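[Discussion] Sanity-checking designs against the backbone

I'm trying to build intuition for which residues belong where. Below is a C-alpha cell string of 767 positions. I'd appreciate it if someone posts a full sequence so I can compare it with mine line by line.
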C-alpha cells in the first residue's frame, strides 16, 4: 500500500519496459506487498522497514523470485547481506520458515529501476497466501538500520516485481509500497534576489533555511527582521517563518533609483544576522538579468520526484526566473510529452516565471551526443534519438537517429539547442548547427567542461556559455550533488534580456548575451572597447547571408564584431556576495591577464590547496583524490573546506600539521584553505594517488604552484592568499592584442573564494 503522505510518479507517464509476455492478464494474480512502517522519514536518518510479499494465485514456483527495485539516482547506498552490524543490512524469511537467497545489484534492473534486490526461492515453492518478509535495515545484529537518501522525495518507492513462474521475467504488482522522505533540521539560511534590474522593474526576494544536505527545511520557526541598503517598494521590515513552511517569497518588489541593493536577514528575537541577499544592481539600461536553470529532469524519466514538484521547486524554493524540463527522449512517452507541454503552458507567467517546453535528445556520443532542445511554443513534434524504452513505436518514424538528422529535422522549427556533457557528451565536431545550437553547457552537476566551448574555437563556432544543473534529484536551481555519483553543485545561467518572456530569453540566446555560473549569483559585465570602431553584426555573418551590422565603439558579451584595430580594451566588472579570488581574462584558451583585488604585499599565512580535473571525457570521468597535506615548521590554526559537497567524504585536520582527504572531481575543483600560525621556514607537501606537489611557503608569491597530473586537466595547486580578502567588487581594463587569423574569443572566468566560478559568453572579435 502507498503511504498517505506519498506522491509517487504516475506509471502511465514513465518510459519503462516490462516483459511483453506475462503469466496472466490481471497483475493482481501475482500477489501483493505491504510495507511497515509507512509515513515520512527524515533524510539521512536510519530506519527499519519490513516488506511482506504475499503470493497470489500463481504462487511462487521453485527457483522463482521477487525483485524489489529502486530508482538509480537514490544515494541511500547499497544493500548488503554480509555484515549484520553495518548499515543497510537486509534479511529475509518465508512464512514456511525457509530463508530466501538475497542478491543486490546496483545495476540489476532496467532504467529507471536499476538498483535491484532479488529474493529467490529454491528447494521448494510458495502457494497462494504464503509470504516472504524482507527486513531492510535489520538491527538485530547491531546494524544502525537502512540509511535514507540525502534528498527529499515525496514518493520513494519499494517497487515490487514478481517472477512467479521462474522464467526470469519480473512483472510489477498492482499497488506499490512507498514512503516519503522529508527534510532535516535547518543548518544554513539563504536569501536570494536577482542581480540586475532597471529602476521600477519588479523582482522577488526568496528566503529559506536548508538542512545539512541542501534541502529546504520545514522545521523552521523564526521571527525575521529585514534590512535593505536602499529603499525597496513592497518589502516588509519583519516577517514570520513558521514550521511547515519551506520558504518565504516576497513578490513585486522594486527599487526606484539606480544603485546597489543588499538585504540583510536577521533573527529578530536574537538580533543575529542569518544571511544576506544581493548584490542587485539597479541600473537604467536595455536589459534586466534573469536567472535560469534550463536543464534537469524528474521521476517520469531517470530523476526523482514528479514533474509538477519539479516546477514548484524551481519557482518557490530555488527562486528562479526561468526553467525547462529536459527528460531523456528515449524515455519520454507520448502521454508524458503531452502532460509536460500542459505543465509548461500552465506555469508560464510572463514577467515572473518563464517556462520552455523541451526535451533532451540523448543520442550516443558516436552519433552526436546529448543536446537540449527548447521550443518557443507548446505542441511541437518531439524528435527522439531512439525508442529504447518506449513500447509504443507507432511514431518511431519521427525519430532522428543522429545529431545531423536532428538538426535537419529542426531547421524549420522555432527552437534552440544546447550541447552538453552528461552521461554522454556532445560531439560538436560530428554535428553542429549554429542557427539552432547557440550555446555550450560548460558546467552542471556532472562537472565542469570548458573544453566543450573551447573545442569549437578552431572550428569557427561562435557559441555562448550556459550552465545548468542537469539535476536528477528534484531540486532545479539549487541542485546539491548528495552522496553518490554527482561531484558538483548544479549551475545557473544569467540572461541579459529586454524582458522576462520566452521571446526575451530566445532573443538573448540568439545574441549570446548571457553568462553561466557553478551555482552562485553574481553580477558580471564584460565589454570590448574599440578605439577605431567596429562593425557589430546582428547575426553571425559566417552563417547568415542576411546578417547586418552597425558601427559601434563598444560591444558586450556574446557580440560578434569586426574591427581594424590591432588592440582592444576589455572592460570587466564583477560584484559578488562573497570575496572574489581572481578573474582570468582570456583570448580563446590563453589567459591574457589575471585580475585580483590584492597584490603580493597583501599575502599572509593563508594557503589554499586545490585538486581539479577529470580522467577523460566519457562516463567514467570521475577522478579520485586520496592523500594528505603535511605542513612542517608551522601549525594549522584553522581549516575551511572548499566544494566539499559530500559531508561523508574524508576532509579533516589530523593533529595540527596534516589535512587528510578522500575526494572526487569531475572536471570541477575542490580543496581547502588553512590559516597557519606562521609561514617562516614552513613547507608543504601534498601527497596524493595522482602525484605529489611540494612548496616552500615563505617563498610563494601571488602565482600558483601547479602540478599537472595527466588525464583531462587534472591538476594539484597551491595558492597563497591574504589572511582576509574584502574584495566583493572587482573590475579592470585589460588591453588585448588581437590575432589577425580567425576569431579572438574574448571572455573571462571569475573565481570566488568560496569555490564558485562564472564564465562570460565570449565576444567574438575578428579583424
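Best answer:
Here's mine. Compare freely.
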Amino acid at each position: 500500500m502507498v503511504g498517505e503522505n506519498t506522491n509517487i510518479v504516475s506509471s502511465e507517464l514513465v518510459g519503462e519496459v516490462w516483459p511483453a509476455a506475462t503469466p496472466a492478464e490481471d497483475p493482481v494474480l501475482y500477489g501483493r506487498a505491504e510495507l511497515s512502517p509507512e509515513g515520512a522519514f527524515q533524510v539521512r536518518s536510519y530506519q527499519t522497514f519490513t516488506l511482506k510479499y504475499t503470493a497470489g494465485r500463481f504462487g511462487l514456483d521453485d527457483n522463482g523470485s521477487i525483485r524489489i527495485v529502486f530508482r538509480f539516482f537514490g544515494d541511500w547506498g547499497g544493500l548488503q547481506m554480509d555484515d549484520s552490524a553495518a548499515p543497510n543490512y537486509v534479511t529475509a524469511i518465508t512464512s514456511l520458515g525457509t530463508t530466501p537467497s538475497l542478491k543486490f545489484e546496483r545495476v540489476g534492473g532496467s532504467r529507471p529501476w536499476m538498483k535491484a534486490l532479488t529474493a529467490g526461492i529454491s528447494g521448494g515453492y510458495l502457494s497462494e497466501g504464503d509470504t516472504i518478509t524482507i527486513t531492510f535495515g535489520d538491527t538485530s545484529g547491531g546494524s544502525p538500520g537502512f540509511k535514507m537518501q540525502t534528498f527529499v522525495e515525496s514518493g520513494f518507492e519499494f517497487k515490487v516485481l514478481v517472477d512467479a513462474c521462474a522464467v526470469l521475467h519480473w512483472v510489477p504488482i498492482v499497488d506499490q509500497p512507498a514512503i516519503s522522505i522529508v527534510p532535516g533540521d535547518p543548518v544554513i539560511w539563504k536569501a536570494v534576489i536577482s542581480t540586475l534590474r532597471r529602476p521600477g522593474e519588479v523582482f522577488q526576494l526568496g528566503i529559506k533555511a536548508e538542512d545539512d544536505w541542501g534541502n529546504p527545511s520545514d522545521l523552521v520557526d523564526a521571527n525575521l527582521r529585514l534590512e535593505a541598503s536602499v529603499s525597496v517598494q513592497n518589502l516588509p521590515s519583519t516577517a514570520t517563518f513558521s514550521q511547515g513552511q519551506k520558504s518565504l517569497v516576497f513578490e513585486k518588489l522594486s527599487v526606484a533609483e539606480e544603485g546597489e541593493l543588499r538585504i540583510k536577514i536577521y533573527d529578530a528575537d536574537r538580533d543575529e544576522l542569518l544571511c544576506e541577499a544581493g548584490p542587485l544592481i539597479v541600473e537604467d539600461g536595455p536589459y534586466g538579468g534573469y536567472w535560469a536553470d534550463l536543464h534537469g529532469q524528474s521521476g517520469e524519466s531517470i530523476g526523482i520526484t514528479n514533474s509538477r514538484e519539479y516546477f514548484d521547486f524551481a519557482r518557490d524554493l530555488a527562486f528562479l526566473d526561468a526553467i525547462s524540463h529536459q527528460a531523456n527522449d528515449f524515455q519520454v512517452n507520448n502521454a508524458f510529452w503531452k502532460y509536460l507541454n500542459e505543465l509548461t503552458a500552465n506555469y508560464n507567467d510572463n514577467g515572473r516565471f518563464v517556462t520552455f517546453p523541451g526535451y533532451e535528445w540523448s543520442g550516443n556520443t558516436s552519433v552526436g551526443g546529448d543536446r537540449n532542445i527548447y521550443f518557443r511554443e507548446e505542441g511541437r513534434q518531439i524528435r527522439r534519438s531512439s525508442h529504447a524504452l518506449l513500447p509504443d513505436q507507432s511514431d518511431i518514424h519521427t525519430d532522428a537517429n543522429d545529431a545531423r538528422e536532428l538538426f535537419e529535422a529542426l531547421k524549420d522549427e522555432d527552437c534552440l539547442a544546447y550541447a552538453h556533457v552528461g552521461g554522454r557528451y556532445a560531439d560538436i565536431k560530428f554535428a553542429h548547427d549554429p542557427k539552432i545550437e547557440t550555446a555550450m553547457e560548460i558546467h552542471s552537476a556532472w562537472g565542469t567542461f570548458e573544453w566543450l566551448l573551447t573545442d569549437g574555437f578552431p572550428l569557427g563556432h561562435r557559441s555562448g556559455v550556459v550552465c545548468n544543473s542537469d539535476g536528477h534529484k528534484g531540486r532545479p536551481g539549487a541542485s546539491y550533488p548528495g552522496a553518490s555519483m554527482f561531484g558538483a553543485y548544479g549551475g545557473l545561467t544569467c540572461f541579459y534580456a529586454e524582458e522576462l518572456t520566452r521571446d526575451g530569453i530566445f532573443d538573448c540566446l540568439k545574441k549570446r548575451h548571457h553568462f553561466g555560473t557553478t551555482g552562485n549569483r553574481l553580477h558580471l559585465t564584460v565589454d570590448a572597447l574599440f578605439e577605431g570602431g567596429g562593425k557589430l553584426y546582428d547575426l553571425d555573418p559566417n552563417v547568415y547571408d542576411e546578417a547586418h551590422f552597425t558601427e559601434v565603439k563598444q560591444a558586450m558579451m556574446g557580440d560578434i564584431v569586426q574591427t581594424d584595430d590591432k588592440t582592444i580594451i576589455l572592460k570587466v566588472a564583477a560584484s559578488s556576495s562573497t570575496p572574489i579570488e581572481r578573474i582570468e581574462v582570456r583570448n580563446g584558451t590563453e589567459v591574457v591577464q589575471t585580475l585580483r583585488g590584492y597584490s603580493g604585499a597583501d599575502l599572509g599565512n593563508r594557503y589554499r590547496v586545490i585538486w581539479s580535473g577529470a580522467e577523460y571525457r566519457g562516463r567514467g570521468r570521475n577522478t579520485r583524490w586520496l592523500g594528505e597535506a603535511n605542513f612542517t615548521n608551522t601549525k594549522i590554526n584553522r581549516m575551511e573546506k572548499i566544494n566539499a559537497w559530500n559531508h561523508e567524504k574524508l576532509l579533516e585536520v589530523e593533529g595540527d600539521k596534516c589535512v587528510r582527504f578522500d575526494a572526487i572531481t569531475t572536471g570541477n575543483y575542490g580543496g581547502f584553505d588553512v590559516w597557519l600560525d606562521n609561514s617562516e621556514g614552513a613547507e608543504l607537501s601534498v601527497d596524493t594517488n595522482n602525484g605529489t606537489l611540494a612548496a616552500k611557503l615563505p617563498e610563494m608569491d601571488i602565482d600558483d604552484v601547479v602540478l599537472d597530473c595527466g588525464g583531462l586537466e587534472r591538476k594539484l595547486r597551491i595558492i597563497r592568499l591574504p589572511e582576509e580578502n574584502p574584495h566583493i567588487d572587482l573590475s579592470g581594463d585589460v588591453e588585448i592584442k588581437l590575432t589577425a587569423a580567425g576569431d579572438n574569443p574574448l571572455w573571462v572566468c571569475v573565481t570566488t573564494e568560496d569555490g564558485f566560478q562564472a564564465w562570460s559568453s565570449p565576444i567574438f572579435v575578428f579583424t
